[in-house]
Amino acid sequence: MILMQGKGVSKGVIKGKLYFFQRPDTTVAMRQVEDVEAEKQRLAQAQEATVQQLNILAEKAREDAGEEIAILFDTHAMFVEDEDYVECILSCLEEEGCNAEYAVQMAGEQFAAMFAAMDDAYMQARAADIRDVSQRILNNLMGIVEGGIDSEEPIILAADDLAPSETIQLDKSKILGFVTQGGSSNSHTAILARTMGIPAICGLGDALKAEYAGRVAYLDGETGSVVLDPDELTHAQIREKYNKQQEMKEILATMKGQEDVTLDGKKMLLYCNIGSPEDVSAVLANDGQGIGLFRSEFLYLSASDYPSEDEQFEAYRAVAAAMNGKRVVIRTLDIGADKQVDYFGMKKEENPALGVRAIRICLNRPEVFRTQLRALYRASVFGKIAIMFPMITSVWEVKECKRACQSVMKELETEGIPYNPDTELGIMIETPSSVFVAEELAKLVDFFSVGTNDLTQYTLACDRQANDLGKFYDPHHPALLRAIKMAADAAHKAGIWIGICGELGADISMLPTFLAIGIDELSVSPAAVLPVRAAIRQSIAQTCTLEMLEC
Ligand code: PEP
Ligand code: MG
Question: What is the pTM of this model?
Answer without folding.
Answer: 0.81
